[in-house]
Amino acid sequence: MKTNLLSSIVLIVSCHFFMSAQQTDNALESELAELIKTFEGDVGIYVYNLKTQKEAAINADTIFPTASIVKVPILIEVFNQIKAGKFHLNDTLIYDAKRVYGGSGVMQFYKDSTVTDLRTLVSLMITMSDNTTSLWCQELVGGGLTINKTMANLGLAHTRVNSRTEGRTQDWETYGWGQTTPREMASLLIKMRNRTLVDAAASDEMYRIMSNSFYTDYSVSQIPPHVQTAAKQGMVDQSRSELVMVNAPSGDYVFYIATKNNTDASWKFDNKAWKLQRTISSYLWKYFEPESDWKPAAGFTDLVKGIKY
After folding, report:
1. 3-class SS of residue 286
2. Exposed, middle or buried: residue 293 (CB in 10 Å: 0-12, 13-18, 19+)?
3. CA nearest 177: which of 196, 200, 160?
């Protein structure tokens, strides 16, 4: 009991120190406000530089839909239960074709009774944003209520799973599968990078998984390919959001760009929310790495703009 009490005190003191150590980067915050002022929809942004401990926040505590970014909390709970001994990454699982769920991902095309494993599920869930594996993982860990309890234990008041979760029908109708704030979701990736989310080994493995995003057309496209990023995207018609950590030469920085109530609900390359994400990501790279002369190649747009979703 004394050990648990001491641990709690240390955690509270550490959180207090972290919050008090943060300073607002007024210049960055002002420029971000300029970049979003003509956007037709609601925008929330949180940026934090892990080296300088400075932040920039615009509507950073406003609740936004997560869409597929809810898969990050699901991932965390999987590793939380792996630590508890309930699962192992290499546990064998048998795919049942009844699990088919449309949208993004490839497991929906597996043959019935295909042998797979938990590592494949979590990897596809994050890298390919696979919906079928995500719902399977959510089920394996005990559902949304279990995941939400872990989010609450991490001190997050608004980051929650809504879909297939008892008592959250109204939240699901408002926000969809999940909900969060820019500051809260960014805090999860900061903890992961600092090796304090679940434990060091789990943090490292989760970060490796998040460093292999398939969706590089958005914010990640504005960062040099030789610089590691960890990212997750969330997309529905009127809400496009993105979580990114950049392991930049001058120091790591994380950002979360959230949008909702977007007037542009198209699924073309030049969707206004996706253009905004690229613009902000490009600005952040130049802001934090002013000596870098890298920029996307002239042929980038031609490579990807013809993609049909």
Report:
1. helix
2. exposed
3. 160
CATH number of the domain located at residue range(s) 21-62+181-290 in this protein: 3.40.710.10
List C-alpha distances in Å: 152 to 147, 172, 201, 283.
9, 18, 22, 33
Q: Is 129 exposed, middle or buried (0-12, 13-18, 19+ CB in 10 A)?
A: buried
Residue 56 zone, left/alpha/beta (φ > 0; ψ -120 to 50; rest): beta
The per-residue pLDDT for range 248-307, each reduced to its tens digit, is 999 999 999 999 999 999 999 999 999 999 999 999 999 999 999 999 998 888 888 765
Query: Tokens 């993609």 belong to which residue?
Result: 307
Give me the residue spans of the domains in the chain.
21-62+181-290, 65-177
Beta strands in 220-273, from DSSP E residues, in sequence order: 229-236, 239-246, 253-260
User: H/E element holding 69?
Assistant: none
* The domain over range 65-177 is classified in CATH as 3.40.50.360: no
Q: How far is CA 37 from CA 41, 48, 241, 275, in A?
A: 10, 21, 17, 14
The tokens of 67 are what? 């869409």
Query: What order do you get walking across the sheet with 229-236 strand by strand?
Result: 23-24, 54-58, 42-49, 253-260, 239-246, 229-236
The answer to whether the beta carbons of residues 299 and 260 sit under 8 Å apart is: no
